[in-house]
């Protein structure tokens, strides 16, 4: 189903999901999302180091060196 089709709008955000406005009176009509219980759907993860491992850094360096050689170069890489 295409995300821009009217069918997908009814599946992902059915009418009445979000707040809307009565165009005649200007009154805000609360959407159904306001009646849903609070959720802890976001899971807390423990913090972990964000640095790449030594092995990952070595692999990255090997790729860097390879793509700088005539064998690893692509014809267009120095044009940018």
Task: Compile the SSE list and pairings.
Blueprint: H1 6-12, E1 20-21, E2 28-29, H2 54-67
Compact overview of the structure:
The protein has helices at 6-12, 54-67; strands spanning 20-21, 28-29. It is mainly alpha-helical and 80 residues long. The two termini are 38 Å apart.
Structure explained in plain terms:
β1 and β2 form a beta hairpin. The mean pLDDT is 85. With 80 residues, the chain is mainly alpha-helical. The chain is 26% helix and 5% strand. The protein has helices at 6-12, 54-67; strands at residues 20-21, 28-29. The protein contains two helices and two strands. The longest helix has 14 residues, at 54-67. The protein is elongated and about 70 Å long. The chain has a two-stranded antiparallel ribbon with strand order 1-2.
Please summarize the sheet with the most strands: 2 strands, antiparallel
**Gross morphology:** elongated
Q: What oligomeric arrangement do these chains adopt?
A: single chain
Mean pLDDT: 85
Kindly provide the radius of gyration, computed on alpha-carbon positions and rounded to a whole number of angstroms. 26 Å
Number of helices: 2
Structural class: mainly alpha
| Strand segment count | 2
Question: What level of helicity do the residues show?
Answer: 25-40%
> Spans of 5+ residues with little confidence (pLDDT < 50)?
none
Question: What is the CA-CA span between the terminal residues?
Answer: 38 Å
Strand content: 5-15%
Strand order, largest beta sheet:
1-2
Order of helices and strands: HEEH
């Amino acid at each position: 189903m295409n995300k821009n089709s009217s069918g997908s709008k009814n599946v992902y955000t059915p009418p009445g999901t979000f707040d809307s406005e009565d165009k005649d009176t200007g009154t805000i009509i609360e959407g159904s999302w306001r009646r849903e219980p609070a959720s802890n759907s976001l899971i807390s993860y423990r913090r972990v180091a964000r640095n790449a491992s030594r092995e990952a850094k070595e692999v990255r360096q090997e790729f860097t060196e390879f793509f700088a050689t005539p064998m690893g170069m692509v014809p267009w890489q120095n044009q940018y």
